Amino acid sequence: MDQDFYFHFIEPDIAIADFVENLGTFRNRSDEAKEVVIIPDGRIDLFFMYSPSEPFHVSLIGLETYPEQRQILPQTIAFVVSFKPIAVEYILKSSIADLLNTGKDLPIGFWDFNVDDLQDFELCCKKATQKIIELLPKETDKRKHKLFELIYLSKGEMSVKELSEKAGWSSRQINRYFTKQLGLSLKAYSTILRFRASLEHIAQGRLFPELNYTDQNHFIKEVKKFSGVAPKELSQNKNDRFVLLSVLKGK
After folding, report:
1. Which domains can be identified in the chain, with CATH numbers?
2. Using only C-alpha atoms, what is the Rg of the chain?
């Protein structure tokens, strides 16, 4: 375990749980950059970050569809809100289709956060929760609510046809919505969620498909596509490079 790299994630208050998956913080206490691999997880991340070499800034990161190596600068401290996709329309109120595999900086002062807040994780959680509660819609489209509930519960294993039937929303309209709001199709998103569900098994050393993959080769191919390495190497997670896997192992 990398002693210089600290992270902590919690589930959100029930009042915002339909829109937020978790709230978290991480720090690179080292005087050297931390090499990490960001892998697709189906979440949209809002980061509040600071390091001595990079002033306080706020960034919104869209969905990822492939692994990417990044550096966390020395002495970085960050607070992150990880949104579920339905939050794009109802909380962020802006499409993130153009942020696929990338991100954008938001104005300093966004949600009234400042650099001093980052020292107090509990305060950050309270501020973010209160702000999201203020932004909660009076009502949501029941079809969309049902759709995302089913996608999450099925861990991406339910077919587009079945999701469409159970949500009472045509597959054509669903895919148009996904493409416009998120920048990818429902099927592509479901595949990412299935991969993420597999990470929980891989984190425990279970290196064989337990979801609806065709066979072992299909499983290995998909793990390589989204993480860049085979399941065995991913499970070993040398130097805690795969932060998401480290979080799952720590559960």
Report:
1. 5-135 (2.60.40), 142-249 (1.10.10.60)
2. 18
In whole angstroms, how far apart are CA 31 and each of 27, 72, 101, 212? 11, 11, 28, 44
Q: Does an H or E element contain 190, and which?
A: helix 186-203
Residues 76, 28: contact at Cβ < 8 Å? yes
Indicate the length of the chain as a whole number: 251
Identify any residues that bridge with 57 across adjacent strands, giving them in sequence order: 49
Q: Phi/psi class of residue 155: alpha, beta or left (left: φ > 0; alpha: ψ in -120 to 50)?
A: left
What is the tens place of the pLDDT at every residue in 140-179?
999 999 999 999 999 999 999 999 999 999 999 999 999 9
Question: For the segment 24-43, what is each residue's pLDDT rounded down to a tens digit?
Answer: 999 999 999 999 999 999 99
Threshold 0.85, pTM exceeds: yes
Name the strands in the sheet holding 44-51, side by side, starting at the edge strand that comes first in the sequence: 5-10, 20-28, 77-83, 44-51, 54-61, 103-106
